[in-house]
Amino acid sequence: MEQVRTSKKEAAIETLPSIYSLQLDELKTWLKENNEKAFRADQIFEWLYKQRVTSFEDMSNLSKSLRQLLADNFTITTLKTIIEQTSSDGTIKFLFELHDGYSIETVLMRHEYGNSVCVTTQVGCRIGCTFCASTLGGLKRNLEAGEIVAQVVKVQQALDQTDERVSSVVIMGIGEPFDNFNNMLSFLKIINHDQALNIGARHITVSTSGIVPKIYEFADQNMQINFAVSLHAPNTELRSRLMPINRAYKLPQLMEAIRYYVEKTGRRVSFEYGLFGNVNDQVEHAEELAKLVKGIKCHVNLIPVNYVPERDYVRTPKDQIFLFEKTLKNHGVNVTIRREQGSDIDAACGQLRAKERQEETR
Ligand code: SAH
């Protein structure tokens, strides 16, 4: 019988923590504990985030022994590209493989104002939204902070070839970011740090399906990042039908948490509202939605449903989308219709993974 064996050393390396998970301060502390100078952390950050090397060996201004020490204790997470699909509008969708064989999606979107990366926070998702492909197969595991950072680094490395820069990040890929809260916060701090990727807080957006206690915690962090909530329904009965999370945290509780966030941070909130044909897309729904968000500093983003083969929602006709928008506008609600990107490349959350990795999502 033939057997492929991983040597002990390789197995050990696979399970080492990602160096991308560390804040600069944490790296300084670690260095001091290991009898190295704290300023080496600045050099390491420079190699990781400005030079974007993929091996400790390349960090040529560090001593050989320090390079070895780093390699014995950390890994520079490298994501293996399984699929890279480019859309006619320039959107690129990546399916990456993690060290344990699971796969995640990352999307690069090109806008007039810059390049935006959509990152995944979990392998799968346990929230169970009835229209979403990411939740098929449930939650496999949380991503480490460094595995989320690595997605942005990897896309930046691709853009380096044309001297372009990742200018904004949206946490809207696979997974519920507030269900992997601490790692998500570490990720935010790392990409925001000026010695790391230096992505401005106002150029970062996080979206949640509505994990109420975490919304309070998030508000108390008082970060200046953009905040979005997947609303999708104007009343609690309908929302429970679309999103089982609403049975645990009901709409009135959710709205209360959002009011708290807006008051605490002074920032506005974005509501994502997917239009699902004949389900939540009628004028009366728009009227009810306008009432629901009245008095809240907010913006409503209408998302025409992305077709998911495993889910049987249908698209709202264009005229009806415009009528929905107009109804909201007439009530003084700030509203836009999300421009579709990458619809020819399965760019909606979890679609590519669901198609390519059926063993993970069944
Ligand atoms: N779990 C987080 C982050 C995902 S963001 C959240 O729920 O907010 C991705 C957005 O796309 C969410 O608003 C999600 O509800 C929405 N979405 C998922 N599947 C969709 C589909 N098939 N059509 C339209 N929007 C969808």
UniProtKB/TrEMBL annotation:
SUPFAM superfamilies reported for this sequence: Radical SAM enzymes
EC top class named in words: transferase
Pfam families in the record: Radical_SAM, RlmN_N
E.C. numbers: 2.1.1.192
Binding site for [4Fe-4S] cluster: 125, 129, 132
Keywords: 4Fe-4S, Cytoplasm, Disulfide bond, Iron, Iron-sulfur, Metal-binding, Methyltransferase, rRNA processing, S-adenosyl-L-methionine, Transferase, tRNA processing
Described purpose of this protein according to its UniProt entry: Specifically methylates position 2 of adenine 2503 in 23S rRNA and position 2 of adenine 37 in tRNAs.
Protein name: Probable dual-specificity RNA methyltransferase RlmN
Species name: Niallia nealsonii
